[in-house]
Amino acid sequence: MASANDEGHSIHVHLDRLLAERGMTLTELATHVGVTTVNLSILKNDRARAIRFTTLTRICKALDCQPGDLLSYLPDHEIHPDTGPT
């Protein structure tokens, strides 16, 4: 049985698109949300294993979006940290 660290996931984060649509940088978002740029970069690059609801709420507020605008489920696909969705 694989450990939790070995298991992939099928959630894709659309942070790049939302930032571009709003003319906002990752650094600006980090300032608004109160999270480090490094942690947002991990989220943006589909390497995050989890996200707190409080962080998700602050991101949605800063980007004026819904969680569904930020996250999508790709059935039968695994997100690979190096290459993104397959």
In brief, what are we looking at here?
By secondary structure, this protein is an alpha+beta fold.
Q: What key phrases describe this protein's structure?
A:
single chain; 86 residues; alpha+beta; two-stranded antiparallel ribbon; 5 helices; 4 strands; 45% helix; disordered N terminus
Count of strand segments: 4
Number of helices: 5
Q: Strand order across the biggest sheet?
A: 1-2
Strand content: 5-15%
Give helix and strand order, one letter per element, not per position.
Answer: EHHHHHEEE
- Overall radius of gyration: 13 Å
Decide which structural class fits the backbone. Answer: alpha+beta
Set down the secondary structure blueprint.
Blueprint lengths: L10 E3 L1 H8 L3 H8 L3 H8 L8 H11 L3 H4 E3 L5 E2 L3 E2 L1
Antiparallel strand pairs: 1-2, 3-4
